[in-house]
Every structure is written in structure tokens, then in C-alpha cells.
Write the C-alpha cells for this entry.
Amino acid sequence: MTMTTTRIHRTALPACIALAVALLAGCGKDGPAAQEAAKRQLDTTAPIVETVLASGDADARLLTFLHQRYGAKAQLDGAWKDRWEDTEVVAMRPVERAVCARQRVTVDDQAHTLLAICQTIEDAASVEPGRVDLFVLRDGERGGATDSQPWPLLVVDQRLLVNAGGDGAPGTVQVETLGPQRPAFHLTQRWNGRGGTLVDRSYIALHNNRLRDVARYRDHLDNLARYDCDSDPDDCEGAVFNIDFSTTVEQQEPVDGYWPITVRGRGQDCAGAAHEFHQLMFDPATRAYQVPEALQRDDCGGS
């Protein structure tokens, strides 16, 4: 039950032809078509900036950043309605955005903020993922500025429009620690596919001022939605699996700053009771944890 995302690449038409086809309007510099194109760009694709000038306490400065990136409707608490320009289908789509993770951490004796914005697509198909924007922010030098005067808020790194989840919703995002200097976004996403359910856990860690994908593996796996099961494993005619995996980050000797991760599987596998144990070690050569195939499978584990 491997899920894949297919991207459709289109050959771009010249700007005037594309606008004429889409809007049946002229391509004059100041005409309605050009104005609408500019409006779409401003509404949905804020420029990527490295520094935002903001004043006040930590919350006020974060809110200034959100307003600069997402517009005046953005807020720290609660969701806001917006529109997103989906360049794959060339359409404006209704979305609901919200801050879904926010945490202050200390890296190399400097305070950072890990911030995640979850985006739920309201008209999504069941197989379409939601989107998540991930940011790492750090206060710049105040240079004698008071709280009422703006000083720099630095965008250390960002990861925009990360595909996550299903039914247009991105799943959950948390901030966790993978090592003494390795804060990470932990994303959990669930798919209810034909025949069963699959839940993935992934970590995107801050390492040398960059967000890096360091691990992805199963959190849950089952085939209880098969047509012959009727939601009851006792009714299934064939082999059944239903396994939950638990994760523990072990605060032991780190490798390149990353602690080992222990994953245990419990439940029912095709051959009987499932009792799995895996220890994931970070590999500096690949800049990621070594994840065994057993934690990436879609079916029986052979236990």
C-alpha cells in the first residue's frame, strides 16, 4: 500500500498567451490580466526574506513575521482562512492556516524559535496531502534598540509546502529533541488506504543552520479495512497484521550530535504476535538515521 505523489509538469506558455487563455483579457502592462496576475502573486507567494524587522516581546515579534509572510489575517492562536495559488493545477484554492507548532530552543548558546504553519486544503481529494511550512527563526543583534524599536528577526532556514497527511489535512507537528544541539520537527501523518491504515513518523532536524530530513519510518500499520474483515480481525479469511510502533529517543552517547532512537513494535503480524525491537543510529555519511526495511514496509513483517 505504498503511497506515491505524481507531479504533472506542464510546458509554460508565454505570459500573454497564458493570461489570454485563462482570463480572455488583454496582456497590456496595466490591463486587468496583468493586475490579476500581480494580485495572485502578492496574495499567495510572499517573498522569501532573510530578515524581518520587528519590535516587542517574543509573541509580538512572531506575529510581525506571520503578517509579513501570510498577511494581516495571520494569528498566533487560532486558524485563519486564506487562499493558495496551486501552481500544479493553476488555480486559487481555499485553505485554512494555523500555527501548529511553536517552541523556543537553545542551539549554540543562542535562542531560536521553531515554528510550523499547517495548511488544510478545503477542497482536497481524499488522496491529496495537506501542506506544512517550517521555519527556524533567531533574534539578531539589537544594536541598542529598545523593546518599542524594531530589531532584526533572522530566518535561519525554512521548508515550504511540505506534503504531509491526507484528505487535504497535514496531520500533526511537534517539536522534539534528537540530541543536545539537535531540535527537530516531528511530523505524524496518516493514510487510510484501500485495505488498511498506515501512519508515518518523520523528523526534520536543525543541523548547522539547516533543516535536514533525518528519519522516516512507520508508527502504525494494519490491513483491517480489507473487504473480508468487516472491521473484525476474527472475520478475516487471510493473514492479518495490526502493529503499533513506539519510539524512545535514548539520551546516550550521541553520534554527530544525535542520540540513538529505539523503536518497538507490538500487535498482530501475519504469522502471530508481533514483538519487534529496532535501534536506529545516526549515520554521519548520509546525514540521516539508518532505518531498516522492516520499519518501511507496507505489509507483513514475517515474524
Notes: The first helix runs from residue 15 to 23. The longest strand covers residues 91-107. The radius of gyration is 23 Å.
